[in-house]
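Q: How do we represent a protein-ligand complex in a form that can be generated token by token?
A: Start from the inputs.
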Amino acid sequence: MPARIAVLASGGGTNLQALLDVPDAPYDVVGVLSDNAEAHALVRAQQHGITTEVVSPRDDLDRGGWDARVAEVLTGWRPDWVVCAGFMRVLGSHVLEAFPSRIVNTHPALLPSFPGAHGVRDALDYGVRITGCTVHLVDAGVDTGPILDQRAVAVLPQDDEESLHERIKVEERAMLVDIVLQLCAHGCSVDGRKVTIP
Ligand code: GRF
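Then emit the structure tokens for the protein with 5-O-phosphono-beta-D-ribofuranosylamine bound:
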């Protein structure tokens, strides 16, 4: 039976696309959830006939209510793995408790350096010569969960945020697909900050 994967995405969805483009994938993307009704990731999902859902932050929904609704939608999709692929909101206890050690996030910097929403810009502003990307399990912090894999990307003298991010994303997509394939095949075990894929 193929593994069931739910994807959370807020933006363009090229990481989602990379997951969808794997030939003979040993998983099905069973749903794509966004906090942003305009996310192109939703269009990509619909083009593949995948169920989509938007859970926007709204005035009548506090943070806990938003998180509970996300947990409800995801639970209905019965995913083996939840993949945050450019999802720009922090998940809360409802979602985390529903999928312990089964939520993966991709981040465009070498954590623990430059967490948060502006990892590429922050690395560039700091003046690092090497940055990159990280795939990690999600915990209650912002980009703090145990690390599954990382890839390095050199910063070039002429780089701006966009050019650097594009080169990072090439590595990020390949790494995310690789880790998701490994997780689907073998699962993982977590001991403190150390994750092992057997
Ligand atoms: C990725 O670099 C992700 O790590 C970051 O935003 C980007 C999303 O890209 N948070 P896409 O929407 O998958 O194209």
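The first strand starts at residue 3 and ends at 8. The chain has six helices and nine strands.
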